[in-house]
From TrEMBL:
GO cellular component labels: plasma membrane
SUPFAM superfamilies xref list: FAS1 domain (SSF82153)
Keyword Signal in record: yes
Comp. bias regions, Basic and acidic residues: 197-208
Location of the region described as Disordered in the Swiss-Prot/TrEMBL record: 167-217
Biased composition (Basic residues): 177-189
Domain of life: Eukaryota
Keywords carried by this UniProt record: Signal
Signal peptide start-end: 1-21
Record protein name field: FAS1 domain-containing protein
Length: 217
């Protein structure tokens, strides 16, 4: 998995002009319909405009099929949540893999207004898979692939799910399975009679005892 991600970075790097410093994150996502929902939120919250002003940035985008918990946030939390998906430096799988430590705190665009929440936890597992998580939340958002990149300027990488701080979104519980009720006591376990022997009682009348012989006179 990691080798495929690295290969995609090299291909995208070859097709991208390194000298081009300015970028437009919305324009980079125009031909990526699977991220239309995330792109819409970038514009709606004006996070895209703030990201375009950065000298370097890394966007962690979420595919539409996983957007529910992010898109359903109230307005007072939505901008902060989207901004927390924008890292303030350029990263790609190669650069992340070259880090001296397997864990790190990476500042996000949210740190400009909230120093506490405006960071992401990064960790690299034993198998090389990379994950992100918000402070106080599990580090479970998996780095899936590189979507677009202009090396040392901007990268767009897909993650498996939104990266939300605790309290920003309620996980949707899976519906419980309903058992089928039995009818007329069917299915009830009855005590087993195995090993128990029934006593066989005689049913006939007992024979009368023979009369004792009369002693001879």
């Amino acid at each position: 998995m990691t080798s495929k991600i690295v290969l995609s970075v090299l291909v995208l790097a070859a097709a991208s002009p390194v000298a081009l410093a300015a970028f437009d994150v919305i324009q980079m996502l125009v031909e990526k319909p699977q991220y239309a929902g995330f792109s819409k939120l970038l514009e709606q919250t004006n996070v895209a405009g703030d990201a375009n002003q950065l000298r370097a940035a890394s966007l962690l985008v979420v595919p539409d099929k996983e957007m529910k918990s992010l898109a359903s946030l109230p307005a007072d939390k939505l901008r902060a949540a989207v901004a927390n998906h924008i890292l303030l430096s350029y990263f790609d799988p190669i650069k992340l893999d070259e880090m001296k430590t397997r864990t790190a705190l990476l500042p996000t665009l949210l740190s400009k207004t909230d120093k506490t929440l405006g960071v992401l936890n990064y960790t690299r597992a034993d198998d090389g898979q990379m994950y992100f998580g918000a402070p106080g939340a599990p580090c479970v958002a998996k780095l899936v692939k590189v979507v677009a990149a202009r090396p040392y300027s901007v990268s767009i990488m897909e993650v498996s799910e939104p990266i939300l701080p605790p309290g920003f979104g309620k996980p949707v519980a899976a519906p419980g399975r309903r058992g089928k009720g039995g009818k007329g006591g069917k299915g009830k376990i009855k005590p087993s009679a195995a090993g128990l022997e029934e006593s066989k009682m005689p049913t006939g009348k007992p024979k009368e005892a023979a009369a004792a012989p009369t002693p001879a006179s």
